[in-house]
Design goal:
Structural class: alpha+beta
Shape: elongated
Strand content: 25-35%
Number of strands: 11
Number of helices: 11
Distance between the termini: 58 Å
Length: 325
């Protein structure tokens, strides 16, 4: 009799195990799955942009402009074409910029004086030479005039105090720029972190790629805000895939930090920027959109210590219909 009872109990246990296996293994509730996802370090990671300490811009880095031909300071739009992060922060007064200009080696020319007519000079060259040989006093007068003109050319060209050093003759055909950024004290301690320059997965070269940057700081502009779990399902293990126990589809959105508000396309701070600066920031992928919901899929595994996130496919629902949201 005892043997029969034990056999019946063993059969019941085996039946329960078979039922669990048939159902795909252990389950997790939507509430618990959402808590596991929100507690994962990957989910809690921020969206960063990178502020360089210096940016060296070659003459062809900003095209043909007064900045490259005459050494004038770069405009906010020209800065945005090179580095939109610098432009956005400068437009909001969060950084100051020093613009240093220097001549391109080998591009030195001396332009003719503005009051000199080169056409009439060609026509009168022979006559002037002949007259100069007969009239030494006129030759001396001409030489004094040339000396005065050379002295006039030797005066430094007056530029905006924003640039340094001031260009001096002989004048250059092209000028290169080096920008040096200084963050405002209000963001130095609380919002900026040092940029080690070693994270190859994080973008640092926004806009033009032919410029040289010195790593400076990293700035968190947004974090993920959990919305809700869509569905908890069984994990279908594919060939060569890691062992897991459940998949969880969920929704989330970006939430901007205080300093990151100008990078939120829905904010008034971003929309008040010049259109060219906005477009450069969008092209450089340094913006966030707090109005958009994202559909992602997390793969969970159950371990002795509890449920853990194995991986998250952030772009899982990008190209899928969202009718069941």
């Amino acid at each position: 009799m005892l043997h029969s009872v034990l056999t019946a109990r063993r059969l019941a246990v085996l039946a329960q195990l078979a039922a669990v296996a048939a159902c795909g293994g252990p389950k997790i509730s939507r509430k618990d799955a959402g808590g596991v996802i929100q507690g994962d370090q990957t989910f809690k990671s921020s969206k960063y942009v990178y502020l360089p300490r210096t940016v060296a811009i070659p003459a062809d880095g900003i095209g043909l402009s007064a900045a490259t031909r005459e050494g004038e300071a770069l405009t906010i739009i020209q800065i945005a074409s090179v580095d939109p992060v610098v432009a956005v922060l400068r437009a909001r007064g969060e950084v100051t910029i020093e613009d240093f200009v220097s001549a391109v080696p080998g591009s030195i020319v001396i332009p003719p004086p503005a009051d000199e007519d080169t056409t009439s000079k060609k026509d009168s060259t022979a006559a002037n030479d002949s007259a100069a040989t007969k009239d030494t006093s006129r030759f001396e007068t001409t030489r004094r005039n040339d000396s005065a003109r050379a002295a006039q050319l030797a005066k430094p060209k007056k530029l905006d105090s924003y640039t340094s050093p001031l260009p001096v003759p002989p004048f250059a055909q092209q000028w290169v720029h080096t920008l040096r950024m200084t963050p405002h004290p209000r963001i130095m301690t609380a919002d900026l972190g040092p940029d080690d320059g070693e994270d190859s997965d994080a973008p640092r070269n926004y806009g033009a790629n032919n410029v040289s940057r010195t790593p400076g700081w990293m700035l968190a502009v947004g974090g993920r805000e959990f919305v809700r779990v869509l569905e908890v399902g069984d994990y279908a293990r594919g060939l060569g895939a890691a062992k897991a126990d459940a998949v969880v589809d969920f929704l989330w959105r970006w939430k901007s930090t205080k300093i990151g508000t100008p990078f939120d396309v829905e904010s008034a701070e971003f929309q008040s920027l010049p259109r060219e600066v906005q477009q450069s920031a969008l092209s450089g992928a340094v913006t966030i959109d707090t109005s958009v919901l994202h559909w992602s899929r997390a793969t969970l595994v159950r371990e002795p210590t509890g449920w853990h996130v194995l991986s998250i496919d952030w772009a899982y629902g990008d190209n899928k219909p969202h009718d069941r949201w």
